[in-house]
Amino acid sequence: MKHWIAPSVLSADFLHLGEAINQINRSSAELIHIDVMDGVFVPNISYGFPIISQIASVAEKPLDVHLMITQPERYFERFREVGAQWLSVHYEASIHLHRSLNSIRQMGMKAGVVLNPHTPVSLLADIVTEADYVLLMSVNPGFGGQIFITNVIQKIRDLKELILRKNATTLIEIDGGVDFINAPLLVEAGADILVAGNTIFSHADIGAAIDKLHQLTE
Ligand code: DX5
Ligand code: ZN
Predict the structure, then answer these.
(1) Which domain holds residue 69?
(2) Quick one: which of 10, 57, 59, 88 has the most CB atoms within 10 Å?
(3) 218 has a pLDDT exceeding 80
(4) pLDDT band at 212 (very low <50, low <70, confident <90, very high)
């Protein structure tokens, strides 16, 4: 598949969120990445249901909701109701990951599992076939605009190998510190979806930055 770009609205100007979503609607981006943080699993608090529901009311691309919260299973149904179409949970926050991924799928959403930078890909051997996508964190979760952790490139290769070995169709998404320099390397290593916050929203022309992320990785 051609790789996809998912702008992370965490880096958008929240006073003009509607305009940011409209710019993404008009762009070549395939998904809209929404980061939900609870101040417990990660040392930051972002936004919740009312904001996501308003984003969903104007968004013309699927919402890819990344849950950085403890016991995420308590809220799957609520996230579906407010418009999440892709929903991912952290491996580190999920005691019953098999059950979680299956219930997300049963609710009609794409189910994703997220690994923190220190969590090895090998831990996914018995679960990767249950996930529609695996999100590899390339920064410690909690904040936008951080420096990319380079060992994720080898993790992408390891994950790709695992997916092929298991005959799975699981997609690989990368989140954190993605920029114009590392994007081609990530795609070459096997990434399918690149999340980018700061790289897109620090650009004067959001649409042009998204196009550039597509072109650089072709
Ligand atoms: C970090 C979030 C990311 C973040 C990425 O915890 O999961 O989605 O918004 O932002 P950048 O691309 O600026 O690192
Ligand atoms: Zn994220």
Answers:
(1) 4-216
(2) 88
(3) no
(4) very high
Measured in Å, residue 97 CA sits from the centre of ligand 1 at: 23
User: Would you name the residues annotated as active-site residues?
Assistant: 35, 175
* 23 CB near ligand 1 (under 6 Å): no
- Domain count across the chain: 1
What are the pLDDT digits (tens) for 67-80?
999 999 999 999 99
CA-closest residue to ligand 1 atom 4: 144
Residue 78 maps to which CATH number?
3.20.20.70
Distance 218 CA to ligand 2 centre (A): 23
Any ligand 1 atom below 6 A from CB of 7: no
Per-residue pLDDT of 119-141, as tens digits, reads: 999 999 999 999 999 999 999 99
Task: Annotate the chain with DSSP letters as a single string.
Answer: ---EEEEBGGGS-GGGHHHHHHHHHHSS---EEEEEEBSSSSS-B---HHHHHHHHHH--S-EEEEEESSSGGGGHHHHHHTTEEEEEEEGGG-SSHHHHHHHHHHTTSEEEEEE-TTS-GGGGTTTGGG-SEEEEESS-TT-SSPPP-TTHHHHHHHHHHHHHHTT---EEEEESS--TTTHHHHHHHT-SEEEESHHHHTSS-HHHHHHHHHHHT-
Give the ligand 1 atom nearest the CA of 200: 12
